[in-house]
Amino acid sequence: MLQPTNINNGDSVKALFVIVILTACVYIQVIHFDFVSYDDFTYVKENPHIADGLTFKGILWALSAGYDSNWFPLTWLSHMTDVTVFGKNNPGGHHFTNLMIHLINVCLLFWLFKLMSKGDIFLSVGVAALFALHPLAVETVAWISERKNLLCAMFWFLSLICYVKYGQEHHFYFASLLFFILALMSKPMAVTLPFVILLLDFWPLRRLSTVRWQKIAAEKIPFLTLTVLSSLVTFKLQHDAGVTADVNILPLGFRILNSVNSYVQYLIELVYPVHLAVIYPYAAKAMGYPIILKTLVLILITVFALLKARRYPYLIIGWLCYLGTLVPVIQIVQIGLAPMSDRYTYIPMTGIYIMMGFGINDLLLQFPRLKCFLLSVIILSLSTFSVMTCFQAATWKNSHSLYKHAIEVSPYNFVAYNNYGLDLMDHGQTDEAIAAFSKGLNIMPTSKNINYSMYLALMKKGRVDEAQVHLLISTYFLKDRDKQIALALIKINQHERAVYFLTWYTKNNPADKEALKALADSLIKEKQHDKIQ
Asked: Beta partners for 335?
């Protein structure tokens, strides 16, 4: 097992202080940023349960609700606390809290690697700095809605720290389990943590050779039970909300290929973090010869790590950690239509940091003359990443800059065109919005969201006949097509036409309360009170 060694705690504190200050300087701009329309309105700004701050009623709601197809009560409670402390509709307060949690996570990762490396400050500082300053972390830190990711990572690191200490000192087991529960209550992505602690038993704790397997298995039962329960609750909530996309939309084979592409693409972005965006389109061109090469890359890395497992166990442990922790968000089980997202790497990249950190350490032991060269490369890389992170964070200033940047770096991004157009509409720039929707439809003509957005924009301009075509396309594949058409008509005060669609719809769906209410309201608007039942 690992045993703690004597180290200079003063040097640790100084090194960590420098990292924290530098990270704060890079990200301090976020406290002046606004809410963005991508989830922030749903999660925080327009969430009626958050508006009153931290109240007893709000606490009960957070613990019991599956709001927006998710159950993460600690995330809701943190946003309520922000409202109580900073006031309603104050995005700066939420951004400040995000930044503070990220800085805490930097310190926790430093602590974790310090334990794993038996007090190696150089390794721990390097990993913490890379985690703190890499552009891939920007989406998690600068996006208010990703509070759940930050909180999940904080409790994730605390759970792993306690488990490593448990492996060293035979204490902290229940603390590790408690922090795992809190991580699940922040974001269900934490379900893979039992897999990670089993890897830690192999290395660096090396408990598999010193502890009976029955004891190791028994230790994992509470963790695995919580994982199963959390997975079932999450899947049911998202399935009931329609978030889990129909497998007929994207076949299993395509989703597997996309997962291979994502695994390798994240590694590329770790080394070459350019063209990062809040939304990525599916890379159709990457599904030809490139996917064959990327598959070979994954196979070769896996084979190399396995062959070197005895001498360099951190390679296979870090690699399996990376592969495993991405499983919930790699889109084999399809949640929504986004193929990949930078925020998904916030925790999984820890596995790659294990490979890099301990690998560089071993390289320096074997070739000490490389120390100056490697140190120069590390400093140059961190300096470059810091500048890139500063500019990447600036794109999150508001919705306009966020979607405009996404379009600039990924021109086939039809989702970004739709969101960009909607933001233009909100600011009264309808003609510009129509132009944006048109570009999005050139990429994805059957997109129900863009067609519906175009319908709303054209109606604003009085181009009714053109608008109707887009309305029909937007609702063509929906089971409640007539209802959706009616609700769209109500939005533009065409209640007489809405009554026609709702009358037919409610005859076949008499239990749909939303449709019945919409029908009653439209009949009242049309002064047809006698037809209200």
From this structure: 244
> Is the predicted pLDDT of residue 248 greater than 50, yes or no?
no
> Whole-angstrom Cα distance, residue 241 to residue 249?
17
Q: ω before 313 within 30° of 0 (cis)? A: no
**Structure tokens given for 46:** 């327009």
Backbone angles phi, psi at 251, to 5 degrees: -60, 160
The whole-number pLDDT of residue 209 equals 87
Query: Would you say 328 and 191 are in contact if contact means Cβ atoms under 8 Å apart?
Result: yes
CA atoms of 447 and 435, how far apart (whole Å)? 16
Q: Give Cα 254 distance to the centre of its chain.
A: 22
The continuous run of DSSP H or E covering 245 comes out as none
Report H helices in 91-172.
91-116, 121-133, 138-142, 147-169
Q: How long a stretch of residues is the chain?
A: 533
Q: What is the pLDDT of residue 245?
A: 52
Token pair listed for 135: 């552009």
DSSP string, 205-244: S-GGGTS-HHHHHHHHHHHHHHHHHHHHHHHHHHHHTT-B
Query: Count H helices, E strands: the chain?
Result: 24, 0
If pLDDT is split at 50, 70 and 90, which confidence band does 58 have?
Answer: very high
Q: What is the mean pLDDT of the chain?
A: 90
Helices marked H in 414-463: 414-426, 430-443, 448-460
277's tokens: 């965006």
Give CA–CA dist 255/246, Å, rounded: 12
- In angstroms, the CA 405 to CA 427 distance is 18
Rg value, the chain, Cα: 26
Q: How far apart are CA 529 and CA 533, in angstroms?
A: 9
pLDDT band at residue 244 using 50, 70 and 90 as cut-offs = low
Tokens of 208: 């598999």
**pTM for this entry:** 0.89
Task: Report d(CA 164, CA 205) in Å as an integer.
Answer: 7
Alpha-carbon distances, residue 189 vs 61, 101, 153, 159, 192 (angstroms):
21, 18, 10, 14, 7
Rounded to whole angstroms, the Cα distance separating 106 from 428 reads 42
pLDDT bin (cut points 50, 70, 90) of residue 5 is very low
